[in-house]
Specification:
By secondary structure, the chain is an alpha/beta fold. The protein has helices spanning about 20-30, 60, 75-80, and strands at about 5, 35-40, 45-50, 55, 65-70, 85-90, 95, 105, 115-120, 135-140. Strands 1, 2, 3, 4, 5, 6, 7, 8, 9 and 10 form a ten-stranded mixed beta sheet that branches.
């Protein structure tokens, strides 16, 4: 059975006001979920946030084993990678390789591999064999 990864801290449905805030990410983490958070650089400082910077990052949190950082920009990826944080950066690629060797798939791509992570934020119909993958990232536990 694949693990659930809380997209931007969401695990009970999307909450755009609170997602990518430290307290919200921590709530999902403390509920036992892996967490993916968006990280971006603004004026040479790392922030949680996808479309705009929300809060400065908590360095201890983003380097925890159960946290995956989605770099919004290349500068953020370099900093995260140098911190040895579990991270990846993608733009239009079907799949990105994370810094720890996982295959992060975009929503309409479902690769059957034990290190694959499928993105399912819109509750798309899943491939018939999700038991062969590592995890599913979404806004609600499925």
């Amino acid at each position: 059975m694949p693990v659930f990864i809380a997209n931007r801290g969401n695990y009970q449905g999307a909450d755009t006001d609170n997602e990518n805030t430290f307290s919200y990410l921590l709530q999902a983490f403390n509920a036992g979920h892996l967490v993916v958070c968006d990280i971006q650089t603004y004026k040479s400082v790392l922030y949680f946030g996808h479309n705009e910077p929300k809060e400065t990052v908590n360095w201890q949190f983003i380097t925890k084993n159960k946290v995956i950082c989605r770099a919004v920009d290349l500068d953020s990826f370099v900093v995260l990678y140098n911190l040895n944080a579990h991270c990846f950066w993608n733009q239009t690629d079907d799949m990105s390789l994370t810094s720890r060797g996982y295959l992060w798939c975009k929503p309409d791509v479902q690769i059957d591999h034990t290190r694959a992570i499928w993105t399912n934020v819109n509750k798309e119909k899943l491939h018939s064999r999700p038991d062969k993958i590592f995890g599913i990232c979404g806004d609600i536990v499925i």
